Amino acid sequence: MKSQSQIVSRTLVRLHSSWAVAACGVTLLMCVSGCGSTPAAWFRPNMVEATKQRLTPDQERQVSTVMLAMFGTPDAPVAPPETGLDEAKLQLAAGPVHSDIVGRKNGLYREHCAHCHGVTGDGLGPTAAFLNPYPRDYRPGVFKFKSTERSDKPTHEDLVRILHNGIPGTSMPSFALLSPPKVEALVEYVKYLSIRGETEIALMRAFFELDDEAQGKLPETREFLVDEVLTPVTEKWKSAADALIAVPEMASDLDLAASIAKGKELFYGDKANCVKCHGPTALGDGQANDYDDWNKAIVEVSKEVKSGLERAGETSTSGMDSEALAEHRGQLAWLDKFGRVLDGGDALRPRTIQPRNLRHGIYRGGRRPLDLYYRIHAGINGAPMPAAKGTVPPEEIWHIVNYVKSLPYELDGELGADRPMVAKDRF
Amino acid sequence: MRICSRNNADDCGGVAVSPRNPLVAAALLACLMTFGCSAERVSTPGADAGRAEQLRATLASSTGGGNAGEAAASTGTGWGTLKGRFLFAGTPGEPKPLMVDKDTEICSKAGVKLVDRSLLVDPATKGLANVVVFARKASRVKETTVPATPLVFDQKQCEFLSPVFAARVGQPIDVHNSDPIGHNTNIAGTSFNQLIPAGQGTLYKADAETGMPTMVTCNIHPWMKAYAVFRKDGYVAVSAADGSFTIPDLPAGEPLEMQVWHERSSGPNGALGLDNPALKWTPKGRFQIQLTPDEVEDIGTLEVPASALGT
To answer: Alpha-carbon distance A363 to A408, whole Å?
Structure first.
C-alpha cells in the first residue's frame, strides 16, 4: 500500500508548478490568519449624530457606557422595565444564529434582518448600499406605514403586518412563513433597536443642553437617564395604541363612479394637490428633488461640511493668536472627521425620494382602501407626503382613495379603446 | 506567464484574474485576506464595561441619587426687560437667487425673483435680522396665560412671510396660505405636515418646546424655508430688520442665561458664538445677564463678525 506522502508528492508533480506554489501559499496563509473566531457583534454608536453634536471621544464613551448599561449588547440585550419590552422575546431574536437549551432557534434578527437593517438597526447592513429604497434606519424612531396619527409610533399590529406582508415595491420581503412566536420576537426586537437608537440620539443631543458647570459630563442619575431621556421615548411607544386614526366608514350607498370623479377633481385641485408630487399623469413624476427625513439629515450635514471646508480653505491663519489658531485647528479636525464619517460607511449616499407611481397598483403600506385612507389622512411620517386631515374632510378622503384605486385601471377615452390602461401602454 | 503590457490597461486588468497566472491570483487573494476589502470606519472609544455595570445597578434602584433636571429655584423678585441690537460686521453680498421651477406664474409673479433670506442685513443700519434670543431656564414666568389669539404664519407668492417666527407652546398658530395655489407646511420635529389649500388656513398648537429653532418647509415648493421656535415661557425674541430685539418681563434680580441662534451661524446647532467676555458669551451661543426690577437692561450693539455666520 502506498504511503500518503507518496500520493501527495505524485499529485503535486502532476500539477502545474506555479499553481502548486500558489495553492501552498494560500493554504499557509489560511493557517496563519485562520477562518474561525469573529469578533463579538457590537452596537456601533450613531456616528453621524455624535459628530454633528461635536462630541469628544470621552463624551462618545459616556454615551456608549450608558447605552451598554441600559440596553446591553447584541448578544445579550437588556430591556429596562420602563420600555415594557419582553426580554424573553428579545433573547429569541438576539445573538448569533444558534439553538438554545430547549432546542429553539435563536438569533432570528441576524438570520433574517441584519444583513439589510444592520446589527444596530441603523439601516447600514452589508447589502444596504445596493438597495433602493435603502433599508429603514430604526434609530430615529420614525416609521412610515401605520394606522396611527402622523407623529405617533406604529402599533404592535402595524409592525406585525409589515413583517407578514413585506413592503411591495421594495426589497422588504414577506416573513409570512415564520411562525407567529418568531414574528413576535422580531417585532419586539425592532422596537428594542428603535427605542435604543432614539435614546442614544437623545443622549447625544443632551450634551448641547448641558450647562457649562456640567463640564461636558452627563448626569449619571436615574432621574436624568430614565425620567428625562428614556421615558419620553418609551411613552410614545406605549401610547401608540391610543393614537389610532379614526376612520369613518365609507357611505354604504356610495356611487363609486361619482366618487371616483370627485376624487379625480380633488387629485388635480388646489385643495388636495396630489398632482404636484404624483404628477399630472400620476406616474410619480411631479416633485422629484426632495428627500425623506433620513436622507435629508445626511444632505444637511454634508452641506454644512462642504461649506465649512470651503470657508476653511479661504481662511488665512497668519495673524491669528494662539487661541484663534487652536479654534481653527479644532474646526478643521471636526470637518475632517465628519467627512470621514459620511464617506466611511456610517452614512449612505443620499437619494431623492420618488413620489409613488400610482399607475402601478403597488402600495407599499398595504393595498386595502383603509391603508390608503391612513396614508392620505395622516400623510407619511418621515416622507414629504403631507396630511390631508384638517383641511380635507373624511368623505373627500374616501373619494381620493377611490380615485387612486382606479388609477391603474383608468379607462382612457383618448386612445379610443375602452380597455384598462396601464402606464407602460401610454408612455 | 504573460507579461502585462504597460500601454494596454485591459491586458493588465485581465492578467490579475487570469487562471493562467496563479501566482498573481494568489498574491491578490493573500492581499485581500490580510487587509480585508472594507474601508476603515471612523473609530470611537468603546463603552466602559465596569462603569456600565455600576450604572445598571443605579438605574435599577428606585432611589438613584441626584436631582438633575430640577427647575432652577427663584432667587430674585420683580421683572425686567432685556434689549439689544445685532449688527453685521461685514459685507453681506448679493443674496443668492432661489431655484423656482414650479408654479412660476404665481411664484415669480410680476418678475419678482425669490432670493435666499438666510442673511438679512439692513443696508442703512447694518442691523442683522432674524437672530433668535431666548431664556434657557426661567425660574418663574410673569404672564402664565398663553395667548389665545392665533399668531398668523402666512405664505404668499411661494414664500413664508415670516422667515423666523416664535410662539409659545400651546398658542394657536394660524398656518395660512394666501396664494391661489395649494401648499403644504411641514414643521420638522413636530407632528405638523399638512396640506394648506389655496386661500385657507388651519390651526396648529405646538405641544412641546423645540429647543433650538426648527425648520419649516413646503415640500411642494422645496425652496420655501422658514424657522420656528416654540417656548413654554414665551421669553423669546426674533431680531427685527434693524437688528433690535426686546424681551420684556423677564425674572429680575437673579442670574439669567440667554441662548442666541442664527440660521447661518457656524456654531453647533446654529448657536451664535460671539467674542464678548463682558457677557460671558460661550461658543454654545449663550450669555449671562442679571436684570434689575422695573428697568430696561440695554446690552447695546452686538457685533456679529462675518466668520461667525459662515459667509
So the answer is: 11
The model's pLDDT over A334-387, given as tens digits with 9 standing for 90+, comes to: 999 999 999 999 999 999 999 999 999 999 999 999 999 999 999 999 999 999
Centre a 10 Å sphere on the Cβ of residue A319 and count the other Cβ atoms it contains.
Answer: 7
Parts of chain B with a pLDDT under 70:
1-21, 24-25, 28-39, 62-72, 311
Q: How many domains does chain A have?
A: 3
Please check whether residue B228 is in contact with residue B213, taking contact to mean a CB–CB distance below 8 angstroms: yes
- Structural domain contains residue A106: yes
Q: Which fold has domain B82-309?
A: Immunoglobulin-like (2.60.40)
Bridge partners of B202? B175
In the predicted model, what is the mean pLDDT of residues A163-169?
96
Portions of chain B given CATH number 2.60.40.420: 82-309
Helix (H, G, I), strand (E, B) or coil at B276: coil
Chain segment B92-112, per-residue pLDDT in tens: 889 999 989 888 888 987 778
Mapping DSSP to helix (H, G, I), strand (E, B) and coil, where does residue B124 land?
Answer: coil
Question: Mean pLDDT throughout A14-24?
Answer: 64
What residues of B are in contact with residue A207 (Cβ under 8 Å)?
Answer: none
Give the closest of B44, B46, B284 to A47, CB-based: B44
Q: Do A270 and B182 touch (CB under 8 A)?
A: yes
Tell me whether residue A149 is in a domain. yes
DSSP codes joined into one string, A271-336:
TT-THHHH-TTSSS-SS-S---HHHHHHHHHHHHHHHHHHHHHH---TT--HHHHHHHHHHHHHHH
CB contacts of A227 in chain B (<8 Å) are: 69
Q: Is the pTM of this model over 0.90?
A: no
Reported ipTM: 0.82
CATH of the domain at A414: 1.10.760.10
Would you say residue A395 lies in a domain?
Answer: yes
Range of the domain at A137: 47-241
Same structural domain for residues A262 and A173? no
